[in-house]
Amino acid sequence: MRKAAMNRRRFLETSGQAAAGAAVVAASGGTTLLMAPDGAWAMTLEALSGQDGATLLRALRVIYPHDSLGDQYYAAVVEALDQDALGNAETAAMLKDGVARLDQAYQMPFAELSEGNQHRALEAIQDSDFFQTIRFKVIATLYNNPRVWQAFGYEGESFDEGGYVERGFDDLGWLPDPPADASPPVEL
Amino acid sequence: MARYDLDDDSVVIVIGSGAGGGTLANELCQKGAPVVLLEAGKHYGIEDFVNDEWNSFLQLAWLDKRTTSGSWRVAKDFSNLPAWICKTVGGTTTHWAGASLRFQPHEFQVGTGYGDVAGANLLDWPLTYDELAPYYDRAEDKMGVTRTHDIPGLPGNNNFKVMYNGAIRVGYKDVHTGRMAINSRPRDGRTSCQQLGFCFQGCKTGAKWSTLYTEIPRAEETGKLDLRPESMVLQIQHDDAGKVTGVLYADQDGNQQVQKGRVVCVACNSIETPRLLLNSASAKFPDGLANSSGQVGRNYMRHTTGSVYAVFDEPVRMYRGTTMAGIITDESGNDPGRGFVGGYELESLSLGLPFMAAFLEPGAWGRDFAQAMESYDHMAGMWIVGEDMPQEQNGVTLHPEERDQFGLPIPNVHFDDHANDVAMRNHAYKQGRAVYEAVGARRVYETPPYPSTHNLGTCRQSARPEDGVCNKFGQTHDVSNLFISDGSQFTTGAAENPTLTIVTLAIRQADHLADQMSKGEI
Q1: What per-residue confidence (pLDDT) applies to B403?
Q2: A66, A142, A174: which to substitute to probe chain B, counting the most B Cβ within 10 Å?
Q3: What does the pLDDT read at residue A17?
Q4: Is the separation of the CB atoms in B231 and B39 below 8 Å?
Q5: B246 - beta bridge partners?
Q6: Which residues lie across from B384 on neighbouring strands?
Q7: Residue B459 and residue B486: Cα distance in Å, rounded?
């Protein structure tokens, strides 16, 4: 996640409005800072509004729901989308329009919907460019986050550690080892 | 390294530096022939490779825009990425997994051997297994293929242990860590496999054979090779007599140059090779070079593929170690009693978590998919690679409107599965599932084909000029000094990973070319 553009304490002093029930929003010079009420994470938005960001974050959580992952991992995806929007007016318009469609799906803000209704609202637009764009952003961002790898048991880069030849490439112990003609021993 | 003048028409021009072009260039240089090797991609070294799926993909993959059509699932999931191949010195040998299997003898004669398969454009190769066998032997020695030339097999990793135990329990007999062009012990100046688990991202130890650090430096040592990276060939030129005279290419500064040559060998993989021939159309050859048969770009094959991933109660950590060192060969024969002709191999395969997210079930979302990803470290995986049917309408054509940065039509890749392909994949999914369920799989995922790494057949060999593009040496029927030097020349695809056969054909082609040149016939 990019470093928040605003001093957190000053932000708390100046902010007044809660967005989507879960986060606090403030705007300053075109930059919006969206924070978790408990201060566990914050995201900085430059093209999207705090409301857009809060709705997107919730939508991403429903598209790829990992209850064990904190909001900060999804917030990083929203920030990546915001950066795409900053450089491309067409993308910005598509994202804002998509958020508006989600917020209108059940005549109340998307973030206030039950998870089932959120799922249905997303299902209704799953063939749209908006949905596919935000879905793929999770694929390319959330699942490419080394902290998420750690949570799901993927160890990432191995060359600097000397590979796995002496670090458990064949440490599976719940099945018998294949015979040597099928699987010869290591020769270094 | 040699530097040849642009107007030096004594050189052999090889286009593409992968398994076909890189090998051919070295073999010719070893015989003393002057070679200009033009490669569209950049020249990286092993030290530049990264153990990071997305960043490696952005570094090595061929990302120039292509379009797709047809009913194949790749056209829906990856509409601008029909193939996962590379644009870099070394070509797709930087990315390949290393599986090096000979074709089976009967697979060279399936035109007669499989009988009449409706809708399939089957044809016998104009050569036999016996003709190729001595060259297979040379290729295996060159590449250091395990289980050949007294080279031991690789040690099996966790993913292989699951495959092996499941396979034996369902009754398969021929299950081992494969014939791999990955050193199981130090050989040929390269180290043994350190089990990094990043074979697809460029092997950072060099244990896996790649033309990048074997054939190409060997060729450079002869003083006969002029390697020009970031040089994209736009057109092959010819004279009034219909002989090729050289190539027009864009150099690394974007300037267009014409390199003259005595012979042109095209090894750009099975999408760019026919595209280049089609883009070289002229008044004399209005349908493209070497295309009197109309077969350039047709009969595109990609192997019948798919993957099976399974989740177990206990951890597997399939990503540790060699990506593809595991094989079940029992289904590779031709047994029409299964409901299809041809056969398939089952090979162990893993993806890292980032690419698993992209490929496990493209487009899927929601709790089921999220649960699968959370089970990543408890997953084992295998890949299906089987013989697909050549079909005339499957292939590479020039896009009617879209142009690349040089103003040339981009390629469109069209593919429809043949009914035989569908039946084979269905059978393989069932068998893969049975293997994993035999060792306690909780959930099994039938993953659709990835963008193609095995691109074959778009300039195929044929005995008769009207049936294909080139003869049994890859020499085009129409133009005697124009050669096809990559997997495009495959008449049919067989059940085996193609690289070993591409290298084998390149070695043989080099012998033929040197002979023809010495006799003054080219």
Answers
A1: 98
A2: A174
A3: 35
A4: yes
A5: B237, B260
A6: B306, B346
A7: 9
pLDDT score of B410:
98
Residue B58 DSSP code: H
Place of tokens 């060997």: B218
Beta bridge partners of A86: none
Chain centroid to CA B81: 15
Q: Which residues of chain B lie closer than 8 angstroms to A165, CB-CB?
A: 193-195, 321
Tell me, what's the pLDDT at A13?
A: 38
| pLDDT of A154 | 98
Nearest by CB: B197 against A68, A144, A164? A164
Q: Are B160 and A178 in contact (CB under 8 A)?
A: yes
Q: Determine which of A172, A181, A188 to mutate to test the interface with B (most B C-beta atoms within 10 Å).
A: A172
Pairing label, strands A31-35, A23-28: antiparallel
- The shortest CB-CB distance from B319 to any of A119, A154, A182 is to A154
Q: Can you give the pTM of this predicted structure?
A: 0.95
Contacting residues of A for B175, CB less than 8 Å apart:
178, 182
Contact B95, B84 (CB under 8 A): yes
Cα–Cα distances (Å) from B148 to A106, B10, B132, B169, B186, in that order, read 66, 38, 16, 27, 15
Residue ranges in chain A whose pLDDT is less than 70: 1-29
Q: Are B144 and B184 in contact (CB under 8 A)?
A: no
B228 contacts B36 by C-beta, under 8 angstroms: yes
Q: CB-based contacts of B184: which residues, under 8 Å, 6+ apart?
A: A184, A187, B146, B151, B152, B153, B154, B155, B192, B193
DSSP secondary structure, B406-447, as one string: TSPEEEEEE----HHHHHHHHHHHHHHHHHHHTTT-SEEEEE
CB B374 within 8 A of CB B364: no
Contacts of B208 in chain A (CB under 8 A): none
A108, two tokens? 């109340």
Mean pLDDT for B48-67 is 98
3-state secondary structure of B328: strand
* Cα dihedral B183, B185, B186, B191 in deg (nearest 10): 60
Minimum-distance CB partner of B161 among A148, A163, A177: A177
Which residues from chain A sit within 8 angstroms of residue B310, using beta carbons?
Answer: none
CB contact under 8 A, B160 and A178: yes
Closest CA to B85 of B486, B496, B491: B486
B369/A64 Cβ within 8 A:
yes
As for the ipTM of the complex, it is 0.95
Work out the mean pLDDT of chain B and round it to a whole number: 98
Tokens of B379: 């997953």
User: Per-residue pLDDT tens for B369-418?
Assistant: 999 999 999 999 999 999 999 999 999 999 999 999 999 999 999 999 99
The pLDDT of residue A36: 84
Strands B379-386 and B344-348: antiparallel
Strand partners, B344: B386
Q: Reading across the β-sheet that carries B12-15, which strands appear in turn?
A: B225-228, B35-38, B12-15, B263-266, B482-484
> HEC states along chain A?
CCCCCCCHHHHHHHCCEEECCCEEEEEECCEEEEECCCCCCEEEECCCCHHHHHHHHHHHHHHCCCCCCCHHHHHHHHHHHHHHHHHCHHHHHHHHHHHHHHHHCCCCCHHHCCHHHHHHHHHCCCCCHHHHHHHHHHHHHHHHCHHHHHHHCCCCCCHHHCCCCCCCCCCCCCCCCCCCCCCCCCCC
Lookup: tokens for B223:
């003083």
CA distance readout (Å), B403 to B87, B256, B269, B407, B408: 19, 17, 20, 5, 5
The per-residue pLDDT for A9 is 40
What is the residue-wise DSSP string for B250-270? E-TTS-EEEEE-SEEEE-SHH
Residue B258 contacts residue B36 (beta carbons within 8 Å): no
Measure CA A171 to chain center: 33
